[in-house]
Amino acid sequence: MSEETKLKPGQKHPTPTPGNGDRVFYETLLSQRPDSVMAQEWCVNHGVMDEEDAKKAFKRMEKRKAQGKSPATGSSGGGSSSGKKKKKKTKKVLDDVAVDAGMDAGGTEGIGTSTL
Fold it and tell me: Which of 1, 11, 79, 98 has its CA 20 to 30 A from that of 111?
């Protein structure tokens, strides 16, 4: 980014164009669920919010990060480590059955084998 480009509070990435799929998704999510942490963080990081909303959302993000509740930190929040190990569920794999889908090229079939 050039020095001429003024970044909004918390912006880390260039602002995507309005038709960008990610931008459409996160802006829609933010409009439908203003409390969505994921949408707030993406919109702040990419500078799609207006200046005032970006400042407010950035302050909330900083507060969450200070408390360790940001999804970007990787903390799960729930779950206690009481020493018990949970059993992993194992998936049973059924034997593969040989199926002839008729997709093989045999004999004189193939590319470049036809006569003119």
Answer: 98
Q: Which amino acid is at 82?
A: S
Q: Say what the pTM is.
A: 0.54
Spatial distance between the Cα atoms of 20 and 27, rounded to a whole number of angstroms? 11
Helices and strands per DSSP (H, E), number in the chain: 3, 0
What end-to-end distance do the CA atoms of the chain give, in Å? 59
Q: Where are the alpha helices (DSSP H) in the chain?
A: 21-32, 37-46, 51-67
Joined together, the tokens standing for residue 36 give 């969505």
pLDDT in tens, 17-68: 999 999 999 999 999 999 999 999 999 999 999 889 999 999 998 998 888 8
